[in-house]
């Protein structure tokens, strides 16, 4: 089974980091968040990735082109002008990198991948979010209901504390109130019929296609109440970094 990881956007809300690199290459614990997402899929036996690129595509291509070299112990022989790899620790991944344009929207990027995907269900998520998730369960759920699309529904972590107010008096302060509404958390499973809902490069997957899928009864949601976190801001990046540094990263299941 293949997994698509959307990696072409500008990442403007994280401009402190994305001025110099694409958002999926922003590091958590010394590794790009893209690597973390791929490790999550790999835990469920999914090692074949198709990654649509856009902004600073060359940096992601260079990362994977040099991945074996960067992951191995090496001997550099200057006299023979050769490099010998002594110990490889690279994952069993197959990565297809497709330049899908600078201005292409999420649905347009997916449409451009049609020829790289088989006529069977595939996974798709965003290149900026991690979760404590067993992707195999999502795949099984998708196959069980027979609809075109499955989305992982999550409750985003609250960014601000909540005041409990009665008659103008603050009765309590909750630092991390529980959000009640589920939102799109990525980690989709999609059947090939989804391409019938994609028009052109201007198609925003989260608008027209998902809305029409829902109207047609072809969009199912699997609720996920365990850890999920997107990296939208510098504050998010620092939080994920801290979780990793203190060995409290829930998404690290390998």
Give the topology.
Elements: E1 2-6, H1 15-18, E2 27-28, E3 31-32, H2 33-42, E4 48-53, H3 57-65, H4 67-71, E5 73-77, E6 82-87, E7 94-99, H5 106-112, E8 122-126, E9 129-131, H6 135-145, E10 149-154, E11 162-166, E12 169-174, E13 183-184, E14 188-190, H7 208-215, E15 219-224, E16 228-230, H8 234-245
Protein architecture, described:
With 254 residues, this protein is of the alpha/beta class. The chain is built from eight helices and 16 strands. Strands 1, 4, 7, 8, 10, 13, 14 and 15 form an eight-stranded mixed beta sheet that branches. A two-stranded antiparallel ribbon has the order 2-3. A two-stranded antiparallel sheet has the order 5-6. It is globular, with a radius of gyration of 20 Å. The two termini are 19 Å apart.
The counted number of beta strands is: 16
Shape: globular
Strand content: 25-35%
Q: Tell me the quaternary state.
A: single chain
**What share of residues is helical?**
25-40%
Number of helices: 8
Q: Sketch the topology as an H/E string, one letter per element.
A: EHEEHEHHEEEHEEHEEEEEHEEH
Tell me about the largest β-sheet: 8 strands, mixed
Structural class determined from secondary elements: alpha/beta
Uncertain spans = none
CA-to-CA gap between the ends? 19 Å
Question: Which radius of gyration do the C-alpha atoms yield?
Answer: 20 Å
Average predicted local confidence, pLDDT: 92
Brief sketch in words of this structure:
This protein is α/β, with parallel strands linked by helices. The chain has 8 helices and 16 strands.
